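Notebook entry, structure prediction.
Reason for the run: the old model in the group folder had no record of what sequence produced it. Starting over properly, with the input documented here first.
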Amino acid sequence: MNPLIKGFAMICRSARSGRLRPNLSGAQTFFSFQPTPLPPEPPVVIDREMTALLCKIYADIGLLHGLASSIPDLSLFLAMYVRREALFSSQIEGTQATLDDILDPTIDRNANRDVTEVIDNVEAIFFAVEQMKDSNPKGLPLCMRLLRETHQVLLTHSRGRDKNPGEFRSSQNWIGPTGCSLTSASYVPPNLEDMHQALSDLEKFFHQEPPRLDPFINAALIHYQFETIHPFLDGNGRIGRLLILLYLIHAKVLTSPLLYISYFLKLHRGDYYAHMMAVRQDGNYEAWIKFFLIAASAKRIFPSDTENCRSAPFKNCVTCMTTTLKRLSMQQPENPPSSAC
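New structure, fully documented this time:
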């Protein structure tokens, strides 16, 4: 229904996820992707593998909540956990920084752009989570306004501060190798009209009542859809990965920022991007959802590396986790991507 259009790099073979839409005319013609609103049709097929992964994830969440309740000062641990997520999420985008940099109180954030980006990411995560707290009378629910305001915090000091922080794009963007054009790009996100419609549809999906699918499956779909819409000129990946956490808090699956998947996505960046592209090209939501659930159920840092510290003073847990994070932050991905999503 949406075949390969000769002369252009983008491919869309299934209307399940969207279609290619022509823009302009003549030699300037390019095709952008118009995503289909969520949830997918035909509906997502939930098989035994998905069910098993979901069971493992919920068992892990129960363990995380139990361990968290035994920590005397949870805010201190959460601060470490958020720094971990911000670091790994930023490293996916190519940021060169380590946990030592982020924890060093003497470092000048203005002297190192990579460190600045991670610190801004930390502040964006805390800002968004604080906004969504029921106890915050001036807060915001999960909505596009919240994402815009979080994006402004994210890009306040970093190299993307000239890319309209806090505003959805007002021009066409594209993804592909350095030097590629709109006609040779591997992916061209929705044009402006389709972008605004897709964002409106996505916001409605946040609040679908009752939800038709498990929250983790919804989180996978939401992350894919946001990355596909690509509504900002910069910072889409970091906001998109934060959106996973925000949706799970919104869905009452999590009560605090304790679950992240950026470390797994960092190690499997090539597969991460390839699975999302496969949804756009072939409508293969199921393979993407399984990959996402594997990431969410992957070996966790906190329980496995600090479980022997439960009866020890909490500072020992922080020391143990800090050592582990320093080691993990230096690991390189298996399949570096040629372009960013």
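Summary: The CA atoms of residues 30 and 182 lie 6 Å apart.
The old model has been moved to the deprecated folder.
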